[in-house]
Amino acid sequence: MDQDEQHLRLLSIFHYVYGGLIGGLGALVGLLYFAMGLWMATALPTSGGRGQPPPPEFGIFFATIGAVVAIVSLAIAGCVIVAGRFLARKTHWMFCLVIAGLICLNAPLGTVLELFRQGVPGRIVQPDEGASYRDEPRPGDYRFRSR
Predict the structure, then answer these.
(1) What's the predicted TM-score (pTM) here?
(2) Which among 9, 58, 63, 126 has most CB atoms closer than 10 A?
(3) Can you tell me the distance from the alpha carbon of 124 to that of 121, in angstroms, rounded to the nearest whole number?
(4) Structure confidence by residue, pLDDT tens digits, 85-141
């Protein structure tokens, strides 16, 4: 196994780990907000506390935001894990490139992961220069066909 193959293998493993972190932590935060929102929406007035409980609409808003955060973080985590699998199989270059751009926005871990990705010498970013990506159309592969 040459050095490029080792880098791709490590990069795919890092994508799996990063996807797990994003999915686990994002879903945890989303579910905490969801539970807090449900608690606020169904809070009964207590006799010993000062003031009124928050309006139920505020709790519904929190629960909605929590559910959206959990779903979006799980979707992003799924895409990152699938991109790691595609990197290991050397397929779907464009999908990996789009996910790489999205991962770069997640500082600091996503940026570090993508800096490592850029350290793999040119084989991932530019598949036309000798990479072994399979079943992926390259720019310029589309030609006009006469019928």
Answers:
(1) 0.74
(2) 63
(3) 8
(4) 998 888 888 888 888 888 888 878 777 777 776 665 444 444 444 445 555 555 554
